[in-house]
Structure prediction request, 711 residues.
Amino acid sequence: MTLNLWHSIIGGRSCCFVQLFKFKSAWCIYATIAVLCSIIPLYAEAASSFDEDDGPYQGKYLGKINSYHHQVSGDVYAVNEFTFLFVGFNYDGNGADTFFWAGASNRPGPQGFIVPDEYGKTNILDRYHNKDFTLSLPDRKKITEVKWLAVYDLNNQNNFGDVYIPEEFEPPQPQVGGTFSKRSHNVSSGAIEILDSKTIRIPDFTYDGKGKRTFFWTGVGAQPSSRGSKIPDEMGYLDPIRPYSKETITLELPGDKTIFDIDWISIYDLADNENYGHVLIADNLNVPPSLVQITPYEFSLPNCRQLHKNLQVSWEVFGPQITLQLSGQVDKDDYMSFGLSGSDTSSQMIGGDVVVAYLDDIRGYSIDYNITSLAPCVQVLGQNKGVCRDDVVGGLDSFQLNTYSRKDGINTLTFRRTLISSDSGDKEIRLDRSNYVIWALGKLDTNYEPAFHTYYPKSDVLIDFNTTEPVNDCFSFTKHVDAPIQTWERIKILDPTIRTFNAYLGPSGGLKGYQGWTGHVSSGLAWYLNGYMIPELFMKRGLTYVFKVRGGNNPHSPDNYHPLVITDEPRGGYDRLSDAKQSEIRVLAGVEFTRRGRPKPTAAGPLCISRYPIGYDRRLDDNFPSFKKFNRSLVTDCPPEEPAILEITPNITWPDTVYYNSFTHANMGWKINIIDNFNNVKNSAKSVFQGLRSFSTMTFVTIVIVMMIRF
Prediction:
């Protein structure tokens, strides 16, 4: 590598060396000296970064640690203005009073300060063996404020090893780039910010969404072209991108790709090979290294398709069978789903034939599912409807599990099935044409059934399983530490004068809503009371309260039949439970039992539901900063029918905490606190319900007006 670099630097000037030895002319000697003087600094600079080029980018190289005692050694990089990266650091741990030590004097000595270790502690250093870690200067001190960093023994004032910070050193820091060129489809942006070697923030990004197959696209060369690769969007999807209107988004380059591997980022349409707008990436940017953890993908089958930043499918067809492998960077309680679309002309969940793959603490599972509605599997007039296992709806489980593993946070399951299944409910995997497929990632519920999916495609996904040459667009998994999602403000209705609750349905609001508030998986819908999603209620024993229930009264509908029940169990879905489970639950209201002991709901009213506007992408729910703004975006549809009435009077036999939920589906409601005196409720909550009361009244008025208009 060094020899090639040397030849590339001197290039065509080598002719002068030939003349030097052939003619020994004085002019050529002077010219040669001049050339050498001009290239030696370039060569020295390239040589100093040789260690960087030989592996992943780790920041700006400061040098090897000068070793004096106790086997101190290693390489040191500047990660940003405040942080050092130690690579392959060694120290035998035998110093008496040894610390990481920094200062601004000319050389290490007693004038300095302790630098906390990799755990943020200022303890005496233990032994290190070939360890990689970062150190941050204390009190927001900057690297440019010190001249050296040492391994120093304060007791003996002995320097075991050090590295010096050069004068006029410029540590890595985020860089500002250009703006997207305005070519077509309203593409525009503010100046991009390159946050680190893999992360680009695009402020005020706009695109009208009217391209055919348009992606975030990157590559090398002077101008964008079709010879490039996709960048996952801000949510990790590799589908054609959605419309944007002055949104600030953050993109992460896929796999092990960094900004040093690309020359441009484009909004590129692959259908028409047209560049709608692009921004160039400057060379040799002095940016921090990415802290993203990169895990190489591993698959044993010849074909691989990246479905999402966190999901891959690979396959091989052999005779009448196909072997599939799903690999996903998922949590332990997540499922991966993949299969054939319910439509031959688009990717459609309804009617789909899929495998649901997951691992528990013991083994892996690949289970055949049939999708008749976007709801958990429930019994409708004696038949199971929704997302149901094939063997529950009279079919066969056609998938045979081969291998399973969980390693580095990645679940990998391999399984096979025949192309043409003996189960009439299964769809045929076609080899004479491409297949429309569907996929999803989500949480498992407490019964190890798939809950409403968190990630899923909004556009068509086509795969040709019978390619003449292997296809592979998969890349390494990447993972970074995300800041915890801040949920919307929790709602509590504490007003003792509110004793009537209007109960209807609405969307569950992503990770900031139902799931974030309760810690339960979501079914996609939730109860709304007096205009609020699953508020926590407070009721006094001895007082009577009324629920006006509009959750759907059509038992033929697996999606929208939700009688309201109140029990001492937090999750709901009483009708789905086994007899043994039902016997463990105390039903307080909303259910009566037949002579044969079968439960029958009593509070099934007409369907009143808040829906997303037409064309809205529910995957963007978490973009709303508050429930109030999220709720304003919904469209409420209430028929002009009388609600079902559920009247309750909590008494001394009721537990202190009970729950309102759906009779048919789990995870749709929340808790009711049963109290003896409102004065015992903390004063800190009193300021909340006054605002709730006025807003609840306003919401009630809105719904009443809608119903009057419908009349």
Remarks:
- Residues 1-53, 684-711 have pLDDT under 50 and may be disordered.
- DSSP finds eight helices and 48 strands in the chain.
